[in-house]
UniProtKB/TrEMBL annotation:
Cofactor dependency: FAD; Mo-molybdopterin
Name of this protein: indole-3-acetaldehyde oxidase
Family assignment from sequence similarity: Belongs to the xanthine dehydrogenase family.
Highest rank taxon of the organism: Eukaryota
Annotated ranges, domain FAD-binding PCMH-type: 43-223
EC number: 1.2.3.7
């Protein structure tokens, strides 16, 4: 293995872990570890105790600052900064782990895990199911399946959840569903036991630390209706509900009218932003004993709306109340009157199928290039053996750092105090700008546009600005101490910060865009407008940010070396720039610094500029303290400091013919760049390059890159391009709504011809055969059965009141720029090959493609039986900035191909050097094996190592690639979801032009991954900030990335093999970023479904000022979708029904 400096960790000590042997059947937990688990001192400190009482009596004798725990999963929600001195594990007290069932109900011990409770309830349902009331057990179990993840269900307890709900106001599902089921709880206080209803328990003062919740009892009913509901950003897995509910009703039939009478009902609502789940007593009273007519139901839902009212500041308050209304409507409407009930349409039978198809054409001309070989290092990663920067064992005396960041946008920093609660002996240093050594500079990152400081000086410039680097003995200590640090701000006599792009315009606060980067206009806007039949003026689109959410957070390890040198391991997409920044910061020549990056656990642009201050802070601290310093930036800090994608505000005017043909477009674009330049000056050209996917007739624009007092934004996968592509679609949608035509027809009529493509993309349009978009559009229409599905969608929407579908086809034209890249190939004595490239393996398969290229290009020497063997002989090693210089940025999708090209050039040289020898040996011996050739070459002093720097000339370094996606969504509920605004992606079909793919398996993964990340941006991820601009979506509780729940139920991806592209590397085209843009098709399809819902709403007599030109924000999260479909759609519907139909009132 190559030198990571400390990689001896792999096999240094004899491991006591038994070797895994799959022939041995079940692997047992190692004996030696059992004894460690029994220890009372698991928390790594003499002061902390972990006790496991076996009976209540033992528990009574324990005193101190005690925390009772079962799974301790609550620590994931309430991040504990201060430790208790004693933890008491309740799992070994038998009474707390019992499950008892009798004819009147089931009693579940408080320490029983959610998983075990689910099994017990299912079993109880099986046994008791002759009784109709046993459905309660089944429904509760089904609801519990949606809680957290399997890990949370297997570890978290029922009691722990209820105590969190009671004591800490946790938005629990379990409290709501058990409240709806009329459950009771048993409490043990001292030696006394008490049984109270769950409702009373929740309303009581907080359970004191001496009391233990011992069990919960769910009664068994004989005959009733029971249902539970949950509206959450994800159907399954790790998303707390916006609101949940459970309803129980005992019914009888009214003798005279035959209508349903509710003899008894329990209506519980929870998680909506009140202290705890409640019973809607007033609504229950209203309904009990009455015949359920439409009028009664209408009264009941209005009362629910007045009852389920979140506290101010909860967020989406109106939405939550509206969903609560929807839940009750869904529960009761089938009983009230068949004509108002929820329609169930059978057209959806095809939806349930899940299937995935990947299609590509195999090219064998350049084998093994073009083959779908397995990703290099996949087994290492899957087994956990792969070494990332944070896996390198700490060298002796290694310290750990954590950033102290500002929470104010613009303030004088009077001082930073370490909180006395964090123990002072933890802390080794608090490094800030004053610690920059003589000759060094306060620099945290550098780009061609300038640099940004490592630390704020006496003024903080934004919330999230780096103020200091706190160094302690362990990462946990550093994190806790930095979180507790008290920053003394002074706001006196300071100007108000610039927090919006409008403020920036008012105060002329802009970054300069170098003229060579400012995009060029096309045609004459005024003339184009004059030709138009219709004009839209000053329409507005706003689009927000997105966080990178790489699996591996930012990491670095800096180790001081002899003679004032520094070795830094960094999870960076651009080690070369990390290197230069460190050298400048600590004031040493660049040859004193060495930055090593083996692989990065996901970057998406966030490990480029933003990785530099992380590594530089470690290097500075190591330089000052003369000790190794490392960091794994915790997720909260990373989310606050990362900046992410550029938010934008766009105002546009557009002219178009009645046919939908666009004649002119003018845009005023305000880009929120944050406080430092970063790479923001490239955003205008990226935005405009992708917006040019349509023929706009004439195109005019004004783009301002605004400097605001917010964290500086950085490149994120498709920087500026995602926004440009989306804005193009928003304009098309607006035109279609104005003309009342299908948006996809407007798209089609405005696709480029090759002539217009040359006008809009003069530097990259290529030859006529290279323009594949029309082909893609037609092919995809066929393979996705677009026309038939459009008819089906329309039919479906007619048949369904509470569920609507939408279909949309979105194209992309994406410009890519190939940058220079270095490479080195060396052939060792045994014939094995070692390769270095400037590009970093970020999970995008760069190493895999480079390996294939090396095998192909060296294979041209044509030794006997070579092809397959050579692939196995190649090892790509880590980037080392002193070994291979000019590595540049791994960015812009093209680094794989440029790294491949660099390697191809090296191989060409090596083959040239080896050829005479090979010919000679062939003549002498008839056959030449690779190993023999290399041995001979070593003996005959052939230089078997070479490097190169691939740099395409400016005339051919840009090219276009194309793709399109058709997405179909089902939005707005049926059964449960109409009323929630939930969206399901039923199907996506993608066709993407990869040229001749270097590795179709890798490229399919890139296309699918990018698309799903785009779905996150367009549909899920809310990167919110408070009024100071401080990021408040700072963890997985609030920031929801896509999961298996989100990906399309049917997902068909095809790579278009588009033949020869003479200026491309073996005719290949990049695919790392462009497919992300295609995910806007999901947003557009959702918009189509919402439009259908709004048309229906209008037919019920509801009107708003926007009509068909409504704005569906990005991301189209559930509250956004529901709002556009009418927060009071149920009430509107009922009013309309009652007034226009003769329903029973
Ligand atoms: C990632 C994640 C997702 C989640 N999603 C959901 C969700 O969607 N819906 C939902 O309802 N819940 C959700 N939860 C909450 C989860 O159900 C609870 O964290 C879990 O049930 C708590 O059980 P525990 O045994 O881990 O409690 P612990 O963390 O051990 O204890 C929790 C609290 O209760 C106290 N306590 C525990 N047992 C007793 C007792 N018998 N008597 C007195 N006090 C006691 C503890 O002192 C502590 O204050 C989620 C949790 C996580 C971590």
């Amino acid at each position: 293995m190559e030198d990571l400096g400390f990689n001896s960790f792999c096999k240094t000590k004899e491991s006591r872990m038994p070797v895994y042997d799959n022939n041995q059947g079940i692997s047992r937990f190692p004996e030696f570890l059992k004894s460690e688990c029994k220890s009372n001192l698991l928390l790594g400190s003499e002061k902390l105790r972990w006790l496991t009482p076996k009976a209540f009596l033992e528990l009574d004798n324990i005193v101190g600052l005690v925390k009772l725990v079962v799974g301790n999963t609550s620590a994931g929600y309430y991040k504990e900064l201060e430790n208790c001195d004693t933890y008491i594990d309740l799992r070994y007290i038998p009474e707390l782990s019992c499950i008892r069932r009798d004819p009147v109900g089931i009693e579940i011990g408080a320490a029983v895990t959610i998983s075990k409770a689910i099994c017990a309830l299912r079993e109880a349902f099986r046994i008791e199911s002759p009784s109709e009331g046993a459905i309660v057990y089944k429904k509760i179990a089904a609801h519990m399946e949606k809680i957290g993840t399997k890990f949370v269900q297997n570890t978290g307890s029922i009691g722990g959840n209820l105590v969190m709900a009671q004591r800490e106001h946790f938005p629990s599902d379990i409290a709501t569903i058990l409240l709806g089921a009329g459950a009771f709880v048993n409490i043990r206080s001292g030696t006394a036991y008490e049984t109270v209803s769950l409702e009373e328990f929740l309303e009581r003062p907080h359970l004191d630390s001496k009391s233990v919740l011992s069990s919960v009892k769910i009664p068994l009913y004989r005959k009733l209706l029971f249902e539970t509901y949950r509206a959450a950003p994800r159907a399954h897995g790790n998303a707390l509900a916006y609101v949940n509910a459970a309803f129980l009703a005992e019914l009888s039939s009214c003798g005279s009218s035959g209508g349903a009478v509710l003899n008894k009902c329990l209506l519980a609502f929870g998680a909506y932003g009140k202290k705890h789940a409640i019973r809607a007593r007033e609504v229950e009273k209203l309904l009990t004993g009455r015949v359920l007519t439409a009028r009664v139901l209408y009264e009941a839902i209005n009362l629910v709306k007045a009852t389920v009212v979140p506290e101010e500041g909860t967020g989406s308050e109106a939405y939550r109340s509206s969903v609560a209304v929807g839940f009750l409507f869904e529960f009761l409407s089938p009983l009230a009157d068949a004509t108002i009930g929820i329609s169930r349409c059978t057209l959806s039978s095809k939806d349930a199928e899940e299937n995935y198809e990947e299609v590509f054409q195999l090219h064998i001309d350049y084998r093994p290039v073009g083959e779908p070989i397995v990703t290099s290092g996949a087994a290492l990663q899957a087994s956990g053996e792969a070494v990332y920067a944070d896996d390198i064992p700490s060298p002796e005396n290694c310290l750990h750092g954590s950033f102290v960041y500002s929470t104010k946008p613009l303030a004088r920093v009077r001082g930073i105090q370490v909180n006395p609660k964090s123990q002072s002996n933890w802390i080794s240093g608090l490094i800030n700008y004053k610690d920059i050594p003589k000759g060094g500079k306060n620099v945290g990152s550098m780009t061609i546009f300038g640099s940004e400081p490592l630390f704020a000086d006496d003024f903080t410039q934004c919330a999230g600005d780096r103020l200091a680097f706190l160094v302690a003995g362990t990462q946990k200590e550093a994190d806790v101490a930095s979180r507790l640090a008290i920053v003394n701000y002074d706001l006196e006599n300071l100007e108000a910060p610039i927090l919006t792009v409008e403020d920036a315009v008012a105060r002329s606060s802009f970054f300069q865009v170098p003229p060579f980067l400012y995009p060029k206009e096309v045609g004459d806007f005024s003339k184009g407008m004059a030709e138009a039949d219709h004009q839209i003026f000053s329409a507005e689109v706003k689009i927000d940010s997105q966080y990178y959410f790489y699996m591996e957070s930012q990491t670095a390890l800096a180790v001081p070396d002899e003679d004032n040198c520094m070795v830094v391991y960094s999870s960076s997409q651009c080690p070369e720039y990390v290197h230069a920044t460190i050298a400048q910061c600590i004031g040493v020549p660049e040859h004193n610094v060495r930055v090593i990056t083996r692989r990065v656990g996901g970057g998406f642009g966030g490990k480029a500029i933003k990785s530099m201050p992380v590594a530089t802070a470690c290097a500075l601290a190591a330089h000052v303290l003369r000790q190794p310093v490392r960091i794994y930036v915790n997720r909260k800090t990373d989310m606050i400091m990362a900046g992410g994608r550029h938010p934008m505000k766009i105002t546009y005017s557009v002219g178009f013919k009645s046919t939908g043909k666009i004649t002119a477009l003018k845009l005023d674009i305000l880009v929120d760049a944050g406080i430092y330049t970063d790479i923001s000056p490239v955003i205008p050209s990226n935005f405009m390059a992708v917006l040019r996917k349509y023929d706009w007739g004439a195109l005019s624009f004004d783009i301002k890159v605004c400097k605001t007092n917010t964290v500086s934004r950085s490149a994120m996968r498709g920087p500026g391009e995602v926004q440009g592509s989306y804005v193009a679609e928003a304009i098309i949608e607006n035109i279609a709504s104005t003309l009342s035509v299908n948006a996809d027809c407007v798209r089609k009529i405005n696709l480029h011809t090759h002539d217009s493509l040359m006008l809009f993309h003069p530097d990259s349009s290529g030859e006529v055969p290279e323009y594949t978009l029309s082909l893609i559009w037609e092919k995809l229409a066929q393979s996705s059965e677009y026309s038939q599905r459009r008819e089906m969608v329309s039919e479906f929407n007619k048949c369904n009141v509470w569920k609507k579908r939408g279909l949309s086809c979105v194209p992309i034209v994406h410009e890519l720029i190939v940058r220079p890249a270095p490479g080195r190939v060396s052939i060792l004595r045994d014939g094995s090959i070692v390769v270095e490239v400037g590009g970093i393996e970020l999970g995008q398969g760069l190493w895999t493609k480079v390996k294939q290229m090396t095998a192909f290009a060296l294979g041209l020497i044509k030794c006997d039986a070579l092809e397959v063997d050579l692939l196995e002989k190649v090892r790509i090693i880590q980037a080392d900035t002193l070994s291979l210089i000019q590595g540049g940025f791994t960015a812009g999708s093209t680094t794989s191909e440029s790294s491949c090209e660099a390697v191809r050039l090296c191989c060409e040289i090596l083959v040239e050097r080896l050829r005479p020898l090979k010919e000679k040996l062939k003549t002498e011996m008839g056959s030449v094996q690779w190993e023999m050739l290399i041995q001979q070459a070593h003996m005959q002093v052939v230089n078997l190592s070479t490097s190169s720097y691939s740099g395409p000339d400016f005339s051919s370094n840009r090219y276009l690639t194309y793709g399109a996606a058709v997405s179909e969504v089902s939005s707005i509920q049926v059964e449960v979801n109409l009323l929630t605004g939930g969206t399901t992606i039923l199907r996506s079909d993608i066709l993407y032009d990869c040229g001749r793919s270097l590795n179709p398996a890798v490229d399919l993964g890139q296309i699918e991954g990018a698309y799903v990340q785009g779905i996150g941006y367009f549909m899920l991820e809310e990167y919110t900030r408070n009024s100071d601009g401080l990021v408040t979506s700072d963890g997985t509780w609030t920031y929801k990335i896509p999961t298996v729940d989100t990906i399309p139920k049917q997902f068909n991806v095809e790579i278009l093999s588009s033949g020869n592209h003479k200026n491309r590397v073996l005719s290949s085209k990049a695919c790392g970023e462009p497919p992300l843009l295609l995910a806007s098709s999901v947003h557009c399809a959702t918009r189509a479904a919402v439009r259908a819902a709004r048309e229906q709403l209008q037919s019920w007599g509801y009107h708003d000022e926007y009509g068909p030109t409504f704005n569906l924000e990005v991301p189209a999260v559930m509250p956004t979708v529901k709002e556009q479909c009418g927060l009071d759609n149920v009430e509107t519907y009922m009013k309309w029904k009652m007034s226009t139909h003769r329903v029973e009132q």
